[in-house]
Design a protein that fits this description.
Radius of gyration: 18 Å
Number of domains: 1
Bound molecules: adenosine-5'-triphosphate, magnesium ion
Order of helices and strands: EEEHEEHEHHHEHEEE
Low-confidence stretches: none
Number of strands: 10
Structural class: alpha/beta
Strand order of the largest sheet: 6-7-8-3-9-10
CATH superfamily: P-loop containing nucleotide triphosphate hydrolases
Strand content: 25-35%
Helix content: 25-40%
Mean pLDDT: 95
CATH topology: Rossmann fold
Number of helices: 6
């Protein structure tokens, strides 16, 4: 999915103080990009990802998804848009502890009632195999390692075949070797299925996964390579 930021500003009001995190930012993400975002703590990486994910709105400016402005959609449509087109992967996995790995992956499919339960199970099982968790569908999150839980989270993010996947420090809680494996899985989906990936990471070692590498500095996003 192509995403265009036009003069995007994001400010937070904290008491009497206004914090400007992003200021008149212009940027374009192309369909099929694997975009890495780096930058110091507090620079605005999560803020930017929340805007990209339509979880938050810019204070000024516009964000266009394949030409459509998210801010112009009614809340219901925006929720549908988000569910159908955007997948999220977080640092702390955010799996539901009472659900098995397979049920966690199925969760985003449930509002789609036109599909049969059997198909949903099948789809989740298939994706679990793709992330290397063949046969682990019945396990609960507490029975899985951190790296395995993050794989479940990736399968969940991809189950609705999104065109954009947003990952905020998905390796932040994992050792470097496992982190590398997790990013290779995302890279595989980017290369094979053309899913656009935006990855926020502190770790410069992971920048090589990006087809483009950027850095937030001075309230704007800059291309590094
Ligand atoms: N909801 C909020 N209300 C007020 N200020 C906020 C809010 N969210 C973020 N901020 C402020 O905006 C700035 C950017 O925060 P953000 O979380 O985007 O940084 P980050 O680059 O993701 O940092 P980190 O690497 O530590 O995760 C920080 O100064 C933060 O305190
Ligand atoms: Mg952050």
């Amino acid at each position: 999915m192509q995403v265009i930021f036009e003069h995007v500003c994001k400010k937070y009001q904290v008491g009497d103080e206004t914090i400007t995190v992003l200021d008149k930012m212009n940027f374009q993400i192309e369909a099929g990009d694997f975009l890495v975002i780096t930058g110091p703590s507090g620079a605005g990486k999560t803020t930017l990802l929340n805007l990209l994910g339509t979880l938050d709105e810019p204070t000024a400016g516009r964000i266009l998804y394949d030409g459509v402005e998210a801010g112009s959609m009614a809340p219901d449509r925006l929720a549908d848009f988000r569910r159908d087109h955007i997948g999220f992967v977080f640092q702390f996995y955010n799996l539901i502890p009472q659900l098995s790995a397979r049920e966690n992956v199925m969760l985003p499919l449930l509002p789609n009632r036109k599909r049969l339960e059997f198909d949903l199970q099948e789809k989740a099982t298939e994706l679990l195999a793709e992330v290397g968790l063949d046969g682990k569908g019945d396990k609960y999150p507490y029975q899985l390692s951190g790296g395995e839980q993050q794989r479940v989270a990736i399968a969940r993010a991809l189950v609705n075949t999104p065109s954009l996947v947003l990952a905020d420090e998905p390796t932040g809680n994992l050792d470097a070797h496992i982190g590398e494996q997790i990013l290779r899985i995302l890279q595989g989906f980017n290369r094979k299925q053309g899913v656009t990936v935006v990855l926020v990471t502190h770790n410069e070692k992971f920048a090589h996964f990006g087809t483009r590498v950027t850095r937030i500095q001075g309230r704007k996003l800059h291309e590094v390579r």
